[in-house]
Amino acid sequence: MRKVLTVLLLSTLAIGTASAETLHFGTTTANPPFVTANGKNQPVGFDIDLAHALCQQMQAQCQFTAQRFDTLIPLSLIHIL
Description:
This protein has helices spanning 2-15, 46-58, 69-77; strands at 22-27, 30-31, 35-37, 43-44, 61-66.
């Protein structure tokens, strides 16, 4: 959980300097109940609900990309996530 929240925090800090209308979140879907995949292979859970609340407060759209955990930070550093 701590790792996922750290990634969410880093994502929000990175986008704080840009005025984007879409917030991109990289996540893994193998960490229930915080993040898991539903029947449509979409991420759901506590962290996803938290991200949606953040997007709502910022009046932005959320976009989630499911990846393996060990690829989240490298992909965000090269601006793929």
